[in-house]
Amino acid sequence: MPKAAVIYARISQDRVGEGLGVKRQLADCRAEAERRGWPIVAEYVDDDVSAYSGKRRPAYRAMLEAIRSREADAVLVYHVDRLHRRPIELEEFVDTCAEAGVKDLATVTGDLNLGTGDGLLIARLMGAVAAAESDAKSRRSKRKMLELAQAGKPSGGGPRPFGFQPDKVTHHPVEAAVIRDLAARLLAGEPLVSLTQWLQDNEIRTVTGKEWRTVTLRNQLKSPRMAGLREHQGQVIGKALWPPIISEDEHARIVALLTDPARRTNRTARSYLLSGLCRCGKCGGKMVTGQTRGRRRYMCRSGADFGGCGGIMISATVEDLITDAVLYRLDTPELAAAIEGRQRADENTAALSESIAADAAQLDELAALYAAGDITAPEWMKARRIIDARLKANRSRQAQQAGSTVIAGHIGNASALRTEWPAMPLGKQVAIVKALVDHITIAPGTMGARSIDPARVEVHWKL
What we know:
With about 475 residues, the protein is an alpha/beta fold. The protein has helices at about 20-35, 60-70, 80-85, 85-100, 115-150, 175-185, 190-200, 215-220, 250-260, 320-330, 335-345, 350-370, 375-400, 415-420, 425-435; strands at about 5-10, 40-45, 75, 105, 110-115, 230, 235-240, 280, 290, 295-300, 315, 435-440, 455-460.
């Protein structure tokens, strides 16, 4: 009899957020464990998480880790399809159980012995059936979504749109009036950031209760839904059943305005060495760049899109202080030791590059197979998702490992770099600084001070 069994429960969609589906699974599994006399040492639950989409299931991964570390010697689920709906995950589960010596997989309706050929065969067949069911369900769902869109009807899932009642057709009188007002003010020339600040000042929230941001408001005002148009997969396909909040003409003018390439945004062209690196010493927020009274500064800003306290400001001459610190750091024994430690930790860099190249080649091969008709579109997409995820993770690791290459020729040679620095392009200066510096904390200053007190500036080194 198992000494340490675990229960796993999962439900793909929990529309009301009450977790009733997993509660029922857990109750039935607990009753089955009691009937068998199995001691339950842990329960793992993924609520509102699909096993077919390929997205990460945190509780499932934690359960696998418990099996690997020999914390569990049996698994109990309501049904096998709660564990897997993708054959590749079933194979990983089987391998993990085999390595840990776990053979007992029980369901409320019966047992599967993963240690026998017949048991594995049944598990694989059930996994294949579950995958086929999910694939068919996905196709039906997509076809239903298209039918709804062609009929001009709203889709069923997700929260209600701002401006509409929960039926997604009837106008919300207060919110619809807000949208009409915002649209008119935008077309009259008022900037998005001002409109966003007005929403925050008047405590008008999104339908999920969050504060508005300019990007959220931009998407809201650009939405074809506001003009009574039905959109499907990014394309307007006709009139909607619901009445428009703004006219189609207003919608077209708003889209043209907000997508105009010449339109200025609140992003400043890079002209600051420490952009994104400075943190407010009061609230910890990221400081932004800008000018006050004609002088370049780093500032903690409050208000729409910023969320800081507004209590810290420092002259951009802090860049000179950080430049001196970076150049000094390049000649220190501490940096040499940090680089040496990283190099030892990165002995697998070559193998990582080979893996990335192999995955890229496999994607090309996969595309060729699909083009030749040797595999179906679902097969191509399923395989591509797996390779893409691995490729993305490896490229991220490679980028992290490459951090020290930017400064490779300057370590222990800062005097030469100091001579080159004034004529060096800003982009190259930024790359060197960011290779060494994680972030910089700026403490409050003294009112009326004419120079920067170095004690205000704390550098947190990356290397």
